[in-house]
Amino acid sequence: MSRRSRREVLRAALRTAAGLSLGSLGARVLLAQAPPPSAGAELGADFHLLRAGPVNVLAVRTGDDLALVDGGAAADSPKLLAAARALARGAKIETLFNTHWHPEQTGSNEALAKAGATIVAHENTRLWLTEDVTWPWNNETVRRLPERARPNKSFYTDLQLTLGGKRVSCAHLRDCPHTDGDMYVFFRDDNVLAVGDAVYGVGWPSIDWWTGGWIGGLVGGLETLLTVANEDTRVVPARGPVLGYKDLRRQYEMYGTIWERLVKKLYGGGSPDEAVAAKPTQEFDDIMGPSEEFVRRAFQSLWAYLSPDA
């Protein structure tokens, strides 16, 4: 998989952490806990926030056509696509963005590819969809997608599109917050930024370290998004409600604090069990929820990037 060297990512992450102070947030970290609405009226007239199982799908009217950011799981796809088409009064879904390779994002690929849609993704996402992936923490296997269902327009660093007069910027989140193929989709003129699972709107994030995600990348990805967004940007995560710039800033500071603590534990010779026992998230748990699984996987994610041969 094409990505920066571990040494380069480590240097960037260390620079990120240098300006953070431990325990600086406390109860100021407030992440919205309400479920997302069925239609995102605050996003603008051309934007609708749909639910596909536990995840958000952003439907965007682009002139006479429709674009979707993520497509839900395959089981949810028929209802999702029917709802999207109803919102658009029969408009054709011409473009689908896969923010990463997970099945909750790619379940509509086959149906939309068959209908002639352009499927846009980072090249690493396309590559993961060419093979079976078995996650070591639950032994669940995600089967590869058939060739016809894989992204047919991929990129490495960034991609600029114009859809129905809307300028759309796609870029790789190369720090790898969730997987090594994470990307954002920015509808520049409308100031709406879709970020997939690189940012969670509710609860602790899931870090897929098996396919390249890591806790340092979570911090680095948020830092990147803070340079893309502004105070008025509406941020659409794959899970939870629409967020704002201040939410990104709070998460950046919180995960930076946690990252520092986990790195110290790693360099002290600690294990995942010892990382959990150290309670590196303790002042945030009342707001964010139980953190054991998050801490364990966040710690394990350090191995690939901060191992002695990095």
How many H/I helices? Answer: 10
Query: What order do the strands of the largest sheet run in, or round the barrel if closed?
Result: 1-2-3-4-5-8
CATH topology: Metallo-beta-lactamase, Chain A
Strand content: 15-25%
Mean pLDDT level: 88
Helix content: 25-40%
Distance between the termini: 16 Å
Rg from alpha-carbon coordinates: 19 Å
Structural class comes to alpha/beta
- The domain count comes to 1
Looking at CATH, the homologous superfamily is Ribonuclease Z/Hydroxyacylglutathione hydrolase-like
Low-confidence stretches: 1-7, 9-41
CATH architectural designation: 4-Layer Sandwich
Q: Which features would summarize this protein structure in a list?
A:
310 residues; alpha/beta; Metallo-beta-lactamase, Chain A; five-stranded mixed β-sheet; globular
What does this structure look like?
With 310 residues, the protein is α/β, with parallel strands linked by helices. The protein has one domain (6-306): Ribonuclease Z/Hydroxyacylglutathione hydrolase-like (Metallo-beta-lactamase, Chain A). The protein has helices at residues 6-18, 77-87, 103-106, 109-114, 123-128, 215-228, 245-267, 272-277, 285-288, 292-306; strands at 47-52, 55-62, 65-69, 92-97, 118-122, 133-134, 141-142, 153-155, 158-163, 166-172, 183-187, 192-196, 234-237. The strands form three sheets. Strands 1-2-3-4-5-8 form a six-stranded mixed β-sheet. It has a five-stranded mixed β-sheet with strand order 9-10-11-12-13, with no helix packed on it. Strand 2 and strand 3 (65-69) form a beta hairpin. The radius of gyration is 19 Å and the shape is globular. Residues 1-7 and 9-41 have low confidence and may be disordered.
